[in-house]
Design brief:
The protein is an alpha+beta fold. The chain is about 30% helix and about 25% strand. It has 11 helices and 14 strands. It has a 5-stranded antiparallel beta sheet.
Length: about 260
């Protein structure tokens, strides 16, 4: 690691002021991505601005028919929240299977989705539940937020302050994890909403995506009796952990498990 200035502001306004005056400032949420990047010198900011001490970004609350979670909320807090469990059980289940206890007690919702790792879990929930990402400047539909591998609609220095999750009729999440990292080799979220079903896939492609053919087969209701169409391996990830063909097979298996979980 190399020399940089470390800042731990106590308000969002202070954090933004520090960033604006830095030569090359970098925000840090939980540090689960940035710290390894710093160690490998893949990222070399002049200033690191830690958002972990901002209570205004760490909260879970209900607003009407939606659950709103602050961007600095820890994975462990989402997993343990009775409020989340009551409103969207699948979201609590998803948070509980992220990484290991150390990762869950350091990593944050905002940091995870801003990084947009192709094998991360939260993107499946953002897209699958039709969530809205709230930043310090605007609101971004979950359908428009994830654009490509490690890329999002966020502009330079834009901060994820919260995510608004509409409560689905029912939802479930299932994943086949890498046994070492616990990242998703394939993860699938199945949701039944007022507008129909959503099946979202993480880990299989360069970016989270919706399995539109499966959604069409299911129609408005999640059903374990529906025959789900296979997806093509074309364009899916192929690496030392799993081939594209194996991932395509896993998508179907995890989709069935996610639907079963949603139905209960």
């Amino acid at each position: 690691m190399y020399e940089f200035k470390y800042h731990r502001p106590t308000t969002l306004a202070e954090a933004m002021e520090i960033h604006s005056s830095a030569d090359d400032g970098q925000y840090m949420a939980g540090g689960q991505t940035l710290l390894p990047a710093l160690k490998q010198r893949l990222s070399r900011p002049t200033d690191v601005i830690d958002l972990g001490a901002l209570p205004e970004l760490a909260y879970i609350k209900t607003e009407g028919d939606a659950l709103v979670i602050g961007g600095a909320t820890l994975h462990a807090d989402v997993a343990a929240s009775e409020q989340v469990r009551a409103a969207i059980p699948a979201l609590a289940d998803l948070a509980a299977c992220i990484g290991d206890p150390q990762v869950r007690n350091c990593g944050t919702l905002g940091g995870a989705i801003a990084n947009n790792d192709p094998a991360a879990d939260y993107p499946a929930a953002i897209l699958g539940l039709g969530a809205t990402v709230i930043t310090d400047r605007r609101e971004i539909s979950g359908d428009d937020f994830f654009t490509d591998m490690f890329e999002t609609a966020l502009e330079d220095s834009e901060i994820v302050t919260a995510v608004r999750f509409p409560k689905p009729i029912r939802a479930g999440y299932a994943k086949f994890p890498n046994p070492a990292s616990r990242y998703a080799i394939v993860g699938v979220l199945a949701a039944e909403t007022a507008d129909g079903t959503r099946i979202t896939v993480t880990g299989a492609g360069a970016c989270v995506f919706r399995a539109s053919a499966m959604e069409a087969a299911l129609g408005k209701t999640l059903s374990s009796d529906t025959e789900l169409p296979a997806i093509s391996p074309e364009g899916l990830n192929s690496d030392m952990h799993a081939s594209a063909e194996y991932r395509a097979h896993l998508v179907a298996v995890m989709a069935k498990r996610a639907i079963k979980s949603a139905i209960g």
